[in-house]
Specification:
Blueprint: H1 16-20, H2 26-29, H3 33-45, H4 49-61, H5 66-75, H6 83-95, H7 99-115
Helix pairs in contact: 3-4, 6-7
């Protein structure tokens, strides 16, 4: 089976020479979501369901812009987001065909609420 970059380029053509010649784009070295899904299947087959779940979420994130991924990461830090903000992020992820990531954000919201890690909701005052 031939592996391809996100750009569709055959990975065998992504060489140091191609990089030096300026022929390689960022999408040529970005991991393809199918690669992550195959790795998730392998991890699950070898008894590592946690790694498999992480790889499936990573596959979903590959379709988002880098800035959006970083914003989600920042929003998930304790005391950075209200419950409503995390719910909105989960809804956006669900709409972007990222159900595993949406589920993780919803779970984080529940845990943060139980542990007092949500940001204060300033609209309620």
């Amino acid at each position: 089976m031939t592996m391809h970059a996100c750009s569709g380029r055959d990975l065998d053509t992504v060489t140091v020479e191609a990089v030096l010649a300026g022929e390689v784009t960022p999408d040529d070295v970005r991991i393809h979501p199918d690669t992550l899904r195959r790795q998730a299947d392998d991890a699950e087959a070898h008894g590592n369901p946690q790694l498999a779940a992480n790889l499936r979420r990573a596959a979903e994130l590959t379709v988002l812009l880098d800035d959006e991924v970083l914003a989600i990461y920042e929003a998930l830090r304790p005391h950075r987001s209200t419950g409503a903000q995390l719910a909105a992020i989960a809804d956006r992820l669900e709409a972007a065909a990222a159900p595993f990531c949406a589920e993780l954000v919803r779970e984080a919201r529940e845990v943060y609420e139980r542990r007092g890690l949500l940001a204060a909701d300033r609209s309620a005052t």
